[in-house]
Amino acid sequence: MPHFDLPIDQLRAYRPEVRVPAGFDTFWRQTLADARKAGGDPRFTPAETPLVGCHVLDVRFPGFAGDPIAGWLLLPPGDGPHPAVVQFLGYGAGRGLPHEYLPWVAAGYACFVMDSRGQGSTWGVGGATPDPHGSGPAANGVMTRGIEDPETYYYRRLFTDAVRAVDAVRRHPSVDAARVAVSGGSQGGGIALAAAGLSEDLMAVFVDVPFLCHFERAVGLTDREPYAEITRYLSVHRESAERVFDTLSYFDGVNLAALATAPALFSVALMDQTCPPSTVFAAFNAYAGPKEITVYAFNGHEGGAAAQWPRQVALLAGAARA
Fold first, then answer.
1. Taking residues 175-200, what's their average pLDDT?
2. 17 in a domain, yes or no?
């Protein structure tokens, strides 16, 4: 697997012009206001698991349009209130099983895991959240569901769910609402960026090898899934490219990063052909808050894997004491 993208010195300076829709701020402000207006309270139900070192709650909280979204909340021992990390998932994954998320709890943090609506059947051990909203013709997967209009696009719903997940975890009495971080890799990294740009007063943001950034470059640079779903769609809907990329601009991590101000730790892999390095650096360089990035020169889409987590814990420990 070769280095195929820009050299590292050019990546560090890479600040491309991307489409910014004229109604971007209004679109998201209204979308989130409508979701909150739909009402509903999160429900936290004790879950039976073999785990004895933490308390596990099955969660249902209102997401986009008030739709019920599943999650897990794992609480460390003690009454709290505990700082919390909201974890977002990679493409095709569901919330899985609680024991998959023990590291944060072992480090003393509550961990809230958001299920990804309409996914959860590609890898892992499954999800529990349907997506009740239909769309027009789409390629296999979720990348092109409703892609001809930002109002109907799938990621409008998923990003709104993410912001409402932050709202929900702040409602639990064992969570310190002032000390909530968001985290994710690949699709989860793109969702974390969206949550960072659209939520207020986050403690920290962890963004690993993020998907959903600098769409026009990504689609033209890699033939890997899931970006290839967009390529496949446009190869059939030949007249739709302008509409499609206009829609995607509302959900581009580069635009959302420009709204985010919480301290952030990114990671990028220079041999990553799924989420090319230039697309990651485009979002990182646009990020408006304090930031740093870990570069893995000889890795693909696995990035730093478990090697990145201690860096995140160190940053979070400092943020939690601040």
1. 98
2. yes
Q: Return the residue matching tokens 């008030």.
A: 66
Predicted structure pTM score: 0.96
Residues designated as active site? 186, 272, 301
Strands (E), the chain: 43-46, 55-62, 68-75, 82-88, 110-114, 175-185, 204-208, 264-269, 291-296
Q: Binding site: what residues are annotated?
A: 91
Residue 1 has what pLDDT?
Answer: 62
CA distances from 130 to 52, 69, 115, 116, 195 (A): 30, 8, 10, 9, 21
Give the HSE-up count for residue 34: Cα atoms under 13 Å, Cβ half-sphere: 13
Whether 263 contacts 315, CB under 8 Å: yes
Taking alpha carbons only, the member of 72, 69, 82 closest to residue 51 is 72
Q: Tokens 């409703």, residue?
A: 146
Whether residue 1 is contained in a domain is answered as no
Asked if 31 and 158 count as a contact pair (C-beta separation under 8 A), the reply is no
Mean per-residue pLDDT of the chain: 95
**Domain extent at residue 181:** 8-321
Overall domain count for the chain: 1
CATH of the domain at 182: 3.40.50.1820
Question: Rounded to the nearest 5°, which phi and psi values hold at 130?
Answer: -75, 165
pLDDT value of residue 320: 67
Contact 70, 127 (CB under 8 A): yes
Tens-place pLDDT, residues 46-70:
999 999 989 999 999 999 999 999 9
Question: Residues within the annotated binding site for substrate?
Answer: 91
How far is CA 51 from its chain centroid? 27
Q: Is residue 66 part of a domain?
A: yes
The alpha carbon torsion through 13, 197, 131, 98 (nearest 10 deg) reads: 90
Residues 28 and 252 sit within 8 Å (Cβ to Cβ):
no
The mean pLDDT of 154-178, rounded to a whole number, is 98
Average pLDDT over residues 83-105: 96
d(CA 172, CA 59): 11
Indicate whether 2 belongs to any domain. no
**Gyration radius (Cα) of the chain, Å:** 18
